[in-house]
Amino acid sequence: MQLTADLVINAPTYTNAINERTVSFRSNGLLSLQNLESLADVYECIDFTNNELAYLGNFPSNKTLFNATTLLFANNKISEIEDSIGDYFPNVTKISLIMNDIESYQELYKLRELKNLKSLAIHKNPITAHSVGYRSFLISILPSLEVIDFERVKNAERERAKELDIEKILLDDKKKRENSSSGKRSVRVNRENLSHQNHSNDKNNRHQRNVVNKLNDSDRQLLKKQLLEAESLEEIQQIETRLKQGYW
Predict the structure, then answer these.
(1) Distances from the Cα of 53 to the Cαs of 24, 160, 185, in angstroms?
(2) Which spans does this entry mark as compositional bias, Basic and acidic residues (predicted)?
(3) Which of 5, 56, 59, 82 is in the most buried spot, having the most CB atoms within 10 Å?
(4) Tens digits of per-residue pLDDT, 197-214?
């Protein structure tokens, strides 16, 4: 569903439990942020929980929401954040990004533009599941933070954060992601090549066909399942070898 100007103008509003005037776009199946220039700057809390947003951006360049202090984006599919988020929401103090798809320090780094941010909820994202240092990283780039994932920032954490080399972390993160993307492309290409090769062998190579025939139906189904689920070149090569040798 698209965020139309009509939906923006007619969205339900209410006063929440902490007396914030709130506009709600919850559970509308929204795919992207659009027509935000139609949103009046009168709300302290803007709620986009439970949608299908993948990109936290597309903010209008000719408008700023000075009154917004709380942003709720939990349970979306956000993996990218626009650099200008701080220009559009300069006074935000609380933001929820729980249950999204943020997996890189490069995306977290863009939150540094929220100069007044005090509370950030970001657990149940890939970056929080796979990195034990995300709290220190956030504290380093956002000194204003007082609470991360409902846990107060401790003085000891602030001291550790001062020792971080942010540039190195970002560079290492970029290289890691580039290598990961390259590896995934290689796996996909090799999987396609393997599929074509097996199809050709089934037709033209009697020996290969005989080996395959030695496998029972259950074996063949398991082999196909393993090929589909293989995540590395090494796995694909191992499965191919087993296929050629005729046993698992």
Answers:
(1) 15, 34, 25
(2) 189-205
(3) 56
(4) 555 555 454 444 443 445
Same structural domain for residues 117 and 27? yes
Domain range for 202 is 168-245
- The C-alpha atoms of residue 40 and residue 67 are separated, in whole angstroms, by 10
32 and 104 part of one domain = yes
- 92 and 149 within one domain: yes
Q: Which of 122, 117, 124, 123 is nearest to 92 (CA)?
A: 117
| CATH code of the domain containing 49 | 3.80.10.10
Same domain, 131 and 31: yes
Give the pLDDT confidence of 137-196 residue by residue, as tens digits: 999 999 999 999 999 999 999 999 999 999 999 998 888 888 876 554 554 545 555 555
